[in-house]
Amino acid sequence: MKTREVKAGNLIIGGGRHIVVQTMCNTHTSDIGASVAQCRELYRAGAEMIRLTVPTMEDVKALAEIKARLRSEGIEVPLVADVHFSSGIAIAAAEVAEKVRINPGNFHKDHQEACRQFARLVQVCKEHGTAMRIGLNHGSLGSRITTLYGNTPLAMKEAAMEWIGLCLENDFHDVVVSLKASNTIVMVQAYRLLAQAMEGKGIAFPLHLGVTEAGNGDSGRIKSAVGISALLSEGIGDTVRVSLTEPPVNEIPVARYLSDRYGQKTASSLAALDITDRKAVAVYKAPSRERLMLDMSCDFGKMLLDREIDDVELRGSYISDDGREIRLDGSADAAYFADELLQAARRRFYKPEYVACPGCGRTMYNLEETFNEVKRRTSHLKGVVIAVMGCIVNGPGEMADADWGYVGEGNRKVTIYRRNTPILKHVPEDEAIDRLLELISSSR
Ligand code: SF4
Q1: What confidence score (pLDDT) does residue 269 get?
Q2: What is the CATH number of domain 353-442?
Q3: Ramachandran angles phi, psi of 133, nearest 5°
Q4: Which pLDDT tens digit goes with each residue over 310-322?
Q5: Is the distance from the beta carbon of residue 63 to the nearest atom of ligand 1 less than 6 Å?
């Protein structure tokens, strides 16, 4: 789908150009030194656009200073202000950042008032040449839409089309849209529906792709690559963010691989393929372990999501980090990669399903360490969906269909959720994983 060009600072998104690689800082934006250092690191690693959270007016000022310092170093990377709930902060941030990311439905409970506030933001964006991302995640749609359409891909598409309509009414076209979900099936369906709906109305806003709360490690990479590649392979998507619960610099090589592969700059290491009885037998010659994971996710993710095949068997080899050739044929490694791939495409669950946000300036605890500890202690709970979220402001909404949620409150306290309901509040951090495990085992 050829989209229109949207300008964010010196960068063009869409218009059939290359797929833009972006990421987000996990520093506190008010910590200007740390944020500048992280932006510098991300820029040098290849980030073409960097988002920072802007929860307060003070953070708007910090963002202006971060931008000034980066520009004084000759780093022109466009900055995106991530703003939730407050149109006032979004308006102030739109005078500073090259792009603002908002979910306008969260501006106000009353839809008409949210629309009025959104229209004011649009005017400020127009005046300052600021681009906008309308980011509507699964789980944060608001009751007005979910009452009509359920918490579904259709609801995500409908909500997006409403806000797109308002942009058009206001003659505002510097718009990028995202419909992320941690569930790859929901995410792919939502973007497909939106791409069709826009095409049907002759609208061509660029799309920002991402599997949100994908977690970390192998699963986070495979889940991200499965969802994003399914869409990029259909010509849907203009910019990507791979969300990992890891230092954000680790996101860049994965996003770069996806950008290059679907910009036809890199090919799969798949050497031979046979599909018999809906099972793919794939023979790889991969130059690294990570490359094998990304290649197989892109080669078979879409086929698994669309139920064209039911299983994958990996053969061939990859080169390990210490330079050895590791054979796959019949190995535990091959079975593990296939299990991860099938779970990422939600075709077979061999372990718990984890939902974890990447963390940002709103995170007030050691998210990475906690998430790894939760994973270590719950690895036996096959099929259970467990979320670990960085903040109480957005975490509960964004963890969508998790069975259990561990949500940081700040002040070294945690709230534990059973589906959408908080069932234990203000639990001290050092007891929270024990409490979570007790609750899960008493419910089984
Ligand atoms: S849920 Fe995570 S990534 Fe989202 S705003 Fe909260 S801490 Fe940041």
Answers
A1: 98
A2: 3.30.413.10
A3: -110, 125
A4: 999 999 999 999 9
A5: no
